[in-house]
Structures are given as structure tokens and as C-alpha cells.
Amino acid sequence: MINAPESPTMRLQLALNVKDLNEAIDFYSKMFNTEPAKVKPGYANFAINNPPLKLVLFEGDSEGTINHLGVETSSSAEVVDTEQRLSNAGLTPTPISDTQCCYAQKTETWLQGPDSTRWEWYVRTGEADQIENKIIDSHDGEAATICCAEGSSC
């Protein structure tokens, strides 16, 4: 008896900078045979099942470059476990934070690779109305604003 493969609990995220959002949406819709899951001003994302991929598009002047890479998890516990595993391995992820970024509420941690590639490990916990990354500090309740779309260090 052959067991069916389990549904993935994580999927790779590829965030690209594009010059023309409508042209990119048309291209990637055809390439992956699916429509975007969300389209907002200057932003679109696809939740692609095959291959399991979260494709995010940021419209701006930096066309044809990677904005950041990420891993979308299915739970906050996976984000926490990953942050601990990375720390135990001697890497330096950011502290876990609850954010509002890319039109979503998320729990996330960030890590920078040796080539300065930014990696995000996150779980989407809800919807948001803004693209800016508003990090809510659990210690003092203050919010700082960073935007991943602008290429900041999130």
C-alpha cells in the first residue's frame, strides 16, 4: 500500500520586486495557472499549491530583483521553534514579533544570510489594511514602522 504524501505544513516564499504589477500578475497567473490570492496597490500575492509556493510581488523601481525569501508555516509554534533552532545553531534571527505587514497580520522572525539575502519565517494570523510592517513590541506596547517592500532589514 502506498501512502499519499502529507500536505506540506510549510511552503517557500519568494518575494520579487517588479516594475509593472499588472504585467507581472498576468505573467505569473499564466505561468502557475492560478490567479492571485490578494491584490492591493503596489502588491500582489499568490498561494500556489503545485509547487507549494507563496509568490509575493512588490511594485517599484527595483525590477527583477529578489526582495526577500521566506518560509510560510502553519502555526506560531513553528515560528517559535524555528527561531529557537536557528539561535541554538549559532545564527542570529530577530526576536519573534507580531506584525502587520504586506496586508496581513503575522507572527515572524527574520534572518540575514551571509550574502545579505533576507529570510522571513512567519505564519499569517489575519488580514491587515496596510503594507507597512508595524512591529508591536510586547515589552512596552510601542509600534515601530518598517516596510519589507522598501528593502529594509525587517
Please tell me about this protein's structure:
- The chain has 2 helices and 10 strands.
- With 154 residues, the protein is of the alpha+beta class.
- The chain has one domain: 2,3-Dihydroxybiphenyl 1,2-Dioxygenase, domain 1, CATH 3.10.180.
- A 10-stranded mixed β-sheet has the order 2-3-4-1-5-8-7-6-9-10.
Task: Throw out a few tags for this protein.
154 residues; single chain; alpha+beta; disordered C terminus; 2 helices; 10 strands; 10-stranded mixed sheet
Instruction: Work out the count of structural domains.
Output: 1
Broad CATH class: Alpha Beta
The CATH superfamily appears as 2,3-Dihydroxybiphenyl 1,2-Dioxygenase, domain 1
User: What order do the SSEs take from the amino end to the carboxyl end, as H and E?
Assistant: EHEEEEHEEEEE
Q: Give a count of the beta strands, DSSP E runs of length 2 or more.
A: 10
How much is the average pLDDT?
Answer: 82
CATH-derived architecture: Roll
Number of helices: 2
**What would you call the shape?**
globular
What's the gyration radius in Å?
16 Å
For the sheet with most strands, the description reads:
10 strands, mixed
Topology-level CATH name: 2,3-Dihydroxybiphenyl 1,2-Dioxygenase, domain 1
State the secondary-structure class: alpha+beta
Q: Outline the low-pLDDT stretches.
A: 136-141, 143-147, 149-154
Largest sheet: spatial strand order: 2-3-4-1-5-8-7-6-9-10
